[in-house]
Amino acid sequence: MNSTILVASANTTVPKYDPATTNIVRGTHQQLVAFLVLNIWPSHLGIPVLLAIIFFSKKIQRHATFINLCITFIIAGFSSSLLAYAGKTTGPEPSPVLCLLQASLLYGYPPMTSVAAFALVLQMFLVIRASYYGKELLERNHVVRLWVMLIAPYIAFFVGLLSTAVIGAAYPTEVSRNRRFFYCSVRSQPLTNSITICAAMFLFATIFVEGWLAVILYKRWMTLTSKGINLKESLDLSMPLRVLAYGAYSTVALSLSLLSIKAPQSPAPDLIIATAPTFLMLIFGTQKSASSSSRIATTSRCLATATEASKSTLPPPPAPTSNDATVSRIVDDISGLTLLQASDLVAQLKEKPKEKTIFNVKLESFDAGAKPKIIREVKALVPNLTLIDAKKFVESLPKVLKENLPKEDAEKLQKTFEALGAVVKLD
Question: Which GO terms describe its biological process (predicted)?
């Protein structure tokens, strides 16, 4: 609550200026409602629905870094809504514990989201760069790196959270809601400087990686154009362009987040930052081709194909089309494979066993009335057998009649005994 000191004068009271609690964000009630809506609907409904579709669909796949980015926005949305849950968005100051809790959560938000956005852009860059040089990026060969990319955002989040909690607990008078209007904050120059520097480092790294990725895509684009190759068929730029667009937007939004911490006079930065989850939904949730495969892996395959195609001076002939429904379904299934699944498929096809050409002919059983004929045929097949030996042979089934016969001879012998009423198996 704004602290004031009453100064005795001629029927007037003069409020004392307290920088820790004085409202420096000049927001309106309509802007407060917009801020809450922009934080609540994607974190409580939109992004959870998107994640549910990804998890339960057999066709839609997304990389773990994308899932991670979605989770960070859910955390941010719930953190921004704490005062709404408690009914403390307006009126008297919320309790010190609630206010410090929200401030701690939200001060961990800029570094967490900046690291998560950097991880997504970096993953796309690594896949595209590997494919550009004709290599294959297998996740199983980079497990440690993947886990670092997934855990790093939460390490940054907890560092920001704990730092804010410690400082806020040490200086409770510096914690208030009125100062930032939309949510609770802690007035601490060293804290805000540290958060600013941490998030800015990853923002600049994201910009650098995006620029490098754009250069790679541009080089491949120009190479294919010079070779006269159909770009739409050779390169799937949908996912890279979406990642680049979202990375650029996140950079701008998070830059405003840093600005709002350092110089928070205008409500515009907080409102623009609040649109980031909605922008995420618009960028990735409306992707028409999302239902076919993992777009990062698909882009990698397309770029790798384009790399091989660009080595030829002539464009490849158009692929033959088929009206067969089974063939079309197989083509759709194969095109929906991830890079790792496609690699496993190729390996299994290479390991397909060769057609068997040598067989053993085994006598399994025979009709009771066919026993004499079977005995005679066995004796004829093995001339050195006596009639008694042939009878014992037939009575101790199953028995191998001949071993290591070519397929044609084995089938011929099988038909001979089957004609007599016997059951013969080829092994």
Answer: translation
If you compute the radius of gyration of the chain from its CA atoms, what whole number of angstroms results? 36
Distance CA(264)–CA(25), nearest Å, equals: 6
Q: In this structure, what DSSP letter does residue 179 have?
A: T
CB distance 416 to 370 below 8 Å: no
Query: What is the predicted pLDDT for the residue at 125?
Result: 87
Phi/psi-derived region of residue 228, left when phi > 0, alpha when psi is between -120 and 50, beta in every other case: left
pLDDT at 22: 55
Residue identified by tokens 């998560």 is 116
DSSP secondary structure, 223-258, as one string: HHHHHT--HHHH---HHHHHHHHHHHHHHHHHHHHH
Token pair recorded at residue 79: 């953190």
Whether residue 103 is predicted with pLDDT greater than 90 in this model: the reply is: yes
Rounded Cα distance between 18 and 34, Å, is 28
Rounded mean pLDDT of 92-99?
A: 94
d(CA 405, CA 360): 6
Residue 7: the pLDDT is 36
Q: Which of helix, strand or coil describes residue 425? A: strand
- For the chain, give the mean pLDDT: 78
Q: Specify the pTM.
A: 0.60
13 close to 2: Cβ distance less than 8 angstroms: no
Domains contained in the chain, CATH given: 29-309 (1.20.1070.10), 358-426 (3.30.1390.10)
